[in-house]
Fold each of these.
Amino acid sequence: MRPLIVANWKMNNGIKESLSYMEVFKPIVKDCNADIAICPPFSGISELKKSMKGTNIKIGAQNMHHEDNGAFTGEVSPQFLKELGCEYVIIGHSERRKHFNETDEFINKKLISALNYRLIPILCVGEDMAQRKKHETKRFIKKQLVAGLGKIGGADVRNIVIAYEPIWAIGTGNNATPDQAEDVHLHIRDLLSKIYGKSSTANVRILYGGSMKPENSKELMVMPNINGGLVGGASLDPKKFAEICMNV
Ligand code: PEP
C-alpha cells in the first residue's frame, strides 16, 4: 500500500511563512515514494495550493462544517474546501473534540458530508492516558470508530483514511512504540474488516499520529498496519517533515 504522510500545521504558519516553507520542502520531496498532503490553516489554503502546482504535494483542511452553507458564523463548508482544491480534510482531531466539544455524532455528519463532496476524510481516533492505563484503549477506539463511521457504506469506506492518534502522544515528544501502535492499528483493521468485509477495507490507510519525527518514523512505518503518518509538531520544520516523507 502506498503510504500517506500528512502535515497538520494546526494554527501555525501564515501565508508568508507557508510560501517560504514550500521553497525548502518541494525540491527535497520531488521523488518521494509516499503520497504527501499538507493541511495548513484555512487562511493559507489558496496560496499554498498555488505554490503546489506541478508537484506531487496535495492540499487538505484541518476541519469543516457538515452543512453546505447557512447561518453558521465562522464555519467553513466542504463546498468551499472543494472550491479551493482541497483533496483531504482532517475530521475529529482530538483537539477539536476537546476544545470545541465535537461529538462522535457530529463527526459522523462531517464524514458523510466530506464523502459527498469527494473530499478524503482523515478520521482521527485515540485514547487518553487514563484509558490506556485502565486497558480501555481498544474498547474506546471501537466506540469512536463505529460511531464516527456511522451509516457509511462499504463503497464509501474505501475512500476514507483513519488516523490513530493516542492523545498522550500528541505534542508530548512521547510517541507510541511501534508495537503499541501496531497493536491498535491491527485492531482498527480487524474492526473495519468485520463491519465492511475484507475486500472493502484491505486498502484503507491507517496513519499513526503522535510525536512522529525523523528519528522514529521509519521504525513506526515498517509495521504492517501503519500506512503513513499524521504529523503535527515535526511538520512545521520543512526539512524534518521532508525527511519523514523520504523515510518511507
Ligand atoms: C497531531 O496533532 O495530529 C499530531 C500528531 O501532533 P504531534 O505530531 O505534534 O504529536
Amino acid sequence: MNQMDIVNLLIPHDRKMPAKMEGHGYAPSNIALAKYWGKRNKTLNLPITDSLSISLFDKGTSTSIEASPYTHDMVILNDREIDSDTLFAQRISHLLNLFRPDPSFYFKITTINNIPSAAGLASSASGFAALILALNDFFQWELDDKSLSILARLGSGSASRSLWHGFVEWHAGVSEDGMDSYAEKLPYQWPSLRLGILIISNREKNITSREGMNRSQQTSPFYSAWPTQVAQTMEKLHTAIKTKDIELLGSAAEQNALAMHATMLTSSPAFCYWQTETLSQIQKIWQIRNEGVPLYFTEDAGPNLKLLFTDEISDIVRSEFRDVEIIAPFHLS
Ligand code: PMV
C-alpha cells in the first residue's frame, strides 16, 4: 500500500476536479499529552502507539487553496513566498501530488500560521490538517472526519489529531493499510484547564521530529519500554480527563514527555532538543511544584515548554513566567 492507494480508497472518483475557485480550512495546533514517537509504517505514518492531545484553540493555521497561475506549486506562508527548494515547500508539494487532477495542474497555497514554525510547537500538525480541510473544500469531497484524519496523517502523523478543538485521541490501529489509524475528538470539556506556552527559542531545529523518532526507534535501548509507558500514560490521562484531576493529568503528561526525551538522549548518535534555558525552566517548575502549586509541563521535539495547570493558579504562573502565553483550550467549544 502506498499513499496513492489510500487516496484512491477514500476519495470518490467523481470528485477529482476542483469544484470551486478557492478552498479554505482552519486547524488548531495540538500538543500531545501522550506522545506519538515511532512508526510501524513510515510511508503511511502509522504509529507504534496511541496518542492523546489537547488543541490550542485559536493558535493554528488558516489555509486557502486555488489553482496556481504558474507551472509550479506556489506556497505563501505568512505573506512570504517559500522557495520551492526548501524542505517545507517540498513536503507540501509531495502531499499535493496525491491530489492533482492531472500532472500539469499546480496549486497555489496561501497559509497563515500564528504559531512559531518548526520550534516544536506542532505547526506541521495544524499546517497539514488545514491543507486537507482546504482541499476538502476546494474539491467538495465532503469526507467524514475519519477520512479527513487519515488524509491529514499522510502529511504528518500529528496532523491526524489537529482537526478538532479539545481533547483528541489518535488510535494507532493494527491494519496494514492504516484505515483503522485515525483520530477522534473525546467528549469531555474542562473549561478551567490552561496551557502556558513558554518560548525558549524560535530557531529552526536541526533534527526534524521525523528523523528524531526514527533514530530513537532504531537505536535507543530504552525504546522497547516506550509502548508500555504510553499505554500507562493513556490510562492515566483518560481518568484525569474524566475526573478533571490536574495532578494526574500533569504528572502523566510530564512523565511521558521525559520518557520520550530519554529515548533521544540514549540514541546513537545521541541528540537533545533542550537548551540550557529549557532545563532551568524545568527546575523552576519543579521548585514551584514542591511549594504545593500544581504546575506541570510537557515538551515536544523542540526546546520550548508547555505548562499545564488550571485557572486557579493563572496569576501565579503569570507572575513567575513573565513572557508566558496562556491559552484556554475550551474557550468557546
Ligand atoms: O507529526 P510529526 O512527524 O511532526 O511528529 C510529532 C512528534 C511530537 O510532536 C514530538 C509528538 C506528538 O505526538 O505530537
